[in-house]
Write a structure and sequence with these properties.
2 copies of one chain form a homodimer. Chain A is α+β, with helices and mostly antiparallel strands. Chain A has 2 domains: 9-155, Nucleoside Triphosphate Pyrophosphohydrolase; 157-220, Arc Repressor Mutant, subunit A, CATH 1.10.10.10. Chain A has helices at 60-72, 139-156, 170-181, 187-197; strands at residues 9-20, 23-31, 40-41, 44-46, 78-87, 96-104, 118-125, 200-208, 215-220. The longest helix of chain A has 18 residues, at 139-156. The interface between A and B is large, with 39 and 39 residues. The first copy, chain A, binds a DNA duplex through helix 4.
DNA sequence: GTAATAGTGTCTCTTAGACAATATGCC
DNA sequence: GGCATATTGTCTAAGAGACACTATTAC
């Protein structure tokens, strides 16, 4: 090991997801410089390890949070390391390592920042586990892995609440799970499990009003026992 | 992003596990050079990205496989990326990134290789999710995370078979699960679930003999549907 | 026969799915 | 009242836990 060998470049890339208009969306930026100029890519950049420089990341997670803030103007809601990609061929220039993260944000929290080194930035809808453009580098692969991870975690954790606004109804939460799992869930069972898992709290006296019976508003109950949602994996009623 | 910024060093470290004498063990090497000289550490080393050099890794996983082979003399049985650790403080010399992997091997497959850059190498028993020495760098943390991942995966996958020899009895498999989960499992339920999950295959006509009824030998049935073991998470009978 | 471990059958209990029934707002 | 959605209750079915039972070897 060490210090004097030739080094790879190290990037941090983030798949930032939100839910808007009943659709899962991911934030992509258009690259302003080669390679892959004018291709869309996950937001990201090099880890800044020079203590003397104006931008300095103490940890990988700091680098990810910095990118997230730069792109969305939002403080971190949910951020998780996905996995690390590294090879001699993923960047035509040289051996690179990309530490990929994925983030979940409520749509309302975000103000997409154009500018910086990205020529453009916008939300792309996800359909069939992908985005309808060719992405730079191996970012289609990273995005695919991120979606897989999200869906896997939706199965057994309360992770989906991070896509919703602070206050939501149980029906809205159920619709979110149904959408992400691509399955219809039974109303009664869903509510039973949500309550048993203790992942949400009633906001006393707050209701969503409409032309019908008002719905109780709930908020995320932070730190339940391990955030486990389903004591059994959900026997889903596919199709 | 790029190419001309100061770069961190990139290492690959591996937590190599096996099961021997009914104990989970991890392979550690004693460091022959500073920093942390004479401390025990996870096997690992720098990723070799110089195409001209005698050792060249095309991917991160190649680097992990190379380390695994160097330390154990065994070809890869089970290898999975754990997570990536990176900060300015985990190595006193500089900003480093360590891509951590974890590997499972049957004890018999391994021939521990002393020498190379490690002064010494040996198995350490794991007790209370740790090893009874101070480790170099943040390796105690990495080891802890690896054990957590292993235990989490034992809950719902067939991963534990990779710790056993090619042929094993269902009782041996059950004892392994009981040991890793720190729980007593019911024989009947366990066998039912193993059979339903289709994770093992009978080896026709092969039995483990003893001073009692011989036990059918089984082998791992590669590639079951997603390798999921427990349709429900095991309601364990703790204590 | 006994001892010891392998392997099976059956009953119960939990919990998710199905779906009916009730509640509460607006018009 | 009628409509729409929220919320609850009840029955059923799948699967795990408990535990007793049978099977097969060595002695």
């Amino acid at each position: 090991m060490s210090i004097n060998y030739k080094k790879p470049s190290v990037m941090v890339d983030i798949a930032i997801f939100t839910l808007h208009e009943k659709t899962l969306k991911v934030l992509l930026v258009k690259r302003g410089i080669p390679p892959f100029q004018d291709h869309w890519a996950l937001p990201g950049g090099g880890v800044r390890v020079d203590q003397e420089a104006s931008i300095f990341d103490k940890t990988l997670e700091d680098a990810a949070k910095r990118e997230l803030l730069e792109e969305t103007g939002a403080k971190t809601h949910y951020l998780e390391q996905l996995r690390t990609y590294g090879s001699d061929s993923r960047d035509p220039r040289e051996w690179t390592v990309s530490v990929a993260y994925f983030a979940l944000l409520p749509y309302a929290a975000i103000q997409v920042q154009s500018g910086s080194d990205a020529a453009d930035a916008r939300w792309w809808s996800i359909k069939d586990n992908r985005v309808p453009v060719q992405l730079a580098f191996d970012h289609q692969q990273i995005l695919h892995d991120a979606i897989q991870r999200l869906q896997a975690k939706v199965e057994y954790t309360a992770i989906a609440v991070h896509l919703l606004p602070n206050a939501f109804t149980l029906t809205e939460l159920q619709r979110t799970y149904e959408y992400l799992l691509e399955a219809k869930l039974d109303k009664s069972s869903f509510r039973r499990r949500v309550h048993n898992a203790g992942i949400v709290k009633i906001i006393p006296g707050q209701f969503r009003e409409g032309s019908n019976r008002p719905a109780q508003l709930y908020c995320f109950a932070k730190k339940t026992q391990k955030n486990v949602f389903f004591p059994r994996s959900a026997d889903r009623n596919l199709g």
